[in-house]
Amino acid sequence: MAEFGDADRQAPLRVGVAGLGNVGATLVRILQKDGAELTRKLGRQLEVVAVAARSRSRDRGIDISGLEWFDDPVALAKWDGIDLFVELIGGEDGPAFAAVKAALEIGRPVVTANKALLAKHGVTLARLAEESGAQLGFEAAVAGGIPVIKTLREGLGTARIAKVFGIMNGTCNYILTRMGNEGISFADCLKDAQALGYAEADPTFDVEGFDTAHKLSILSTLCFGYEIAPDKMRVEGISNITQHDIQVAADLGYKIKLLGIAERTDDGIEQRVHPTFVPKGSAIAGVDGVMNAVALETDHVHELLLAGPGAGGPPTASSVLSDILDIARGTRVPPLGVPSDELLPYREAPHRPHEGGFYIRLSAKDVAGALAAIATRMGEKSISIDSVIQRSDLSAKAVAPDGSPTRTVVMITQQTLESSVREALAQIAADGFIVGEPQLIRIEKL
Amino acid sequence: MAEFGDADRQAPLRVGVAGLGNVGATLVRILQKDGAELTRKLGRQLEVVAVAARSRSRDRGIDISGLEWFDDPVALAKWDGIDLFVELIGGEDGPAFAAVKAALEIGRPVVTANKALLAKHGVTLARLAEESGAQLGFEAAVAGGIPVIKTLREGLGTARIAKVFGIMNGTCNYILTRMGNEGISFADCLKDAQALGYAEADPTFDVEGFDTAHKLSILSTLCFGYEIAPDKMRVEGISNITQHDIQVAADLGYKIKLLGIAERTDDGIEQRVHPTFVPKGSAIAGVDGVMNAVALETDHVHELLLAGPGAGGPPTASSVLSDILDIARGTRVPPLGVPSDELLPYREAPHRPHEGGFYIRLSAKDVAGALAAIATRMGEKSISIDSVIQRSDLSAKAVAPDGSPTRTVVMITQQTLESSVREALAQIAADGFIVGEPQLIRIEKL
Q: Would you say residue B57 lies in a domain?
């Protein structure tokens, strides 16, 4: 084994950074500012020598005058003046993919924070890395500042993971937290999140759950050893969550969180992203605001929860840097936990009854027999109802298109199949007793 | 850099395990059972070849017939038939220290779960390891199944840690959780914990906070780069916590947890272990039962919380195994995060005002003017009182030694120095208005 201070470790590790947004600029600042401490930690000098970005002149609060400039990230990735390539451009294809591919093809290690790229091309890139002997780090791609990739790849011994779930989108968690604390609507929270820079101008990718789905698919592969399958899951966002849902959840002792959940079953993998009732006292319910959290259930380690900042320049740059340090130290692990040719083809589990039951919110016509008719349809599908709530202070009296008044009905079911609930609701809608779309939220016992 | 599958990686890594208690036996079972998966993960065979323990004949549910047996762990540590020595004997001195020292002296890597050993001899052992080029892993020594050592050593880049705190003793957390959920006394909970094997026959080391102090001192060194100083801290356990304290905490929106807390200040390090009021909605308040949690506050990563099982055979063995895998892969980091000769001498911070304020419970004589006299003494020390509670359902009417009746008075203070509070309480006691020892618990804003 090599000693600290070996001669071959003394050559500085030269880093090229493509993409100088918030994370990229923060990384360059840290590498320039903390150089001495890094050298002390590592026994080797670490130096950013080149950058690529769209605009050379933009003020990013960092001094790039002494660095080699590249307009083309692929040219930087291939340049023989660097030992390690950092991709912080973003996007699942285009220059990010081209540059990462180019670096790995020539055996150059890569660190990226790009979850979309990983979700789409992760297996291809891992294979490339293994073939050329390069390392591929992506700690920052999932849950920004939380070292969940390292924990999955290196921290669990042979513990067999049964389930992974978490809060992986800070925008959604910020919105849900404020809705819960301040009683304001989804739309108002979203507007604030956009003003504060926590949400994009087009928030669809975040609030509809697709970002969570990308991250979950990467974790799922690291946990279960199947190929990455970001499209093999039901994805539901938070844009339909109302104050009524939040308040009923609170009354019942729950908070609503957008969770990504992947489970290993005997018949394959179940992956899903959806708003979820989580018990108020649970550790994950305490993860508020822009914070993220990932929970792992294994045979050996009953449950492990990692919580921290999911985004933001400094935490994300910190994760990128920990990958760089690992590579500089010579740490070698297969990018996806096992060699890519040992990954199993993804196998989707058939639908199963959901243990925790469901929260159902309906806008029912305020006519005699409506509730009885609804209850009958549920009974026909063998769905047991735990409780029905029609609290007057919450029942938003409204009027159906045909002029009849409506009232909000909330039902909590026992363990049942989601398909049974959906079939019952379709039947109830066909009976003409409800107005608009019903709301359906899973309750997790956690 | 070496490739997976290099010829020199093909030689099996031969492991010797000293100490076959719960963790040791579980580790041997995993190494024997999961051999194929380990080889797949590692690209190298991992094999337990020798063991040492007190009794050869004891039934541990594992087959040790094919393994080399040693009565003396030091002889095993030195035996040239192993490549890596695992110490699971326990104890801060004696055979554990002798064996670990013997292995490191000949450059043999060591993995240990022994926090007492690390707290007392960690710097000496780290120096030995660095001198001989051996690795020293101790992931399992702090917070059993939670990968906090790895996160501190490798997962945070150059993030500068400002504060580390956590729940590091499962026995205490189990007792406090049950006291909170079931309204039973400390003594009854302790009896149950002993019956369930969560507490030792002599529980002093756990319930008086010393175990937490050992673990905190190790984390503190990894966080701040000072020498390990387990004796440089105020340590207070949970044996004086009453149902009254638990219930007032609940009424005010808090839970009581035994926390170890270490902070970097401009004037040195502050380390302390004591029961603490933590806000009910916080993530750490959700960490219940035998679970542990460690929270890190850094400049870059605002707050990171790692929660999971703090003890038990499988989680602890899993952490031991992750250290073994790291060593087998050739991962090289200084045991204490930085080379041991760069550790700074420990510097104890002077006492500071405590931001969160204090909870104070007194048994006051039920005489006219008592409360006014108490309030006056607090005022003399410039202590602002947020609220005073004398709830009738909780005031345990009692009788002072002089025959006068007493009632329980609870005060919540604003930010103040602990020394001021203690001085005021001493004065109040001298005035003769209270009976017995006052209870003082810190409130943390977290």
A: yes
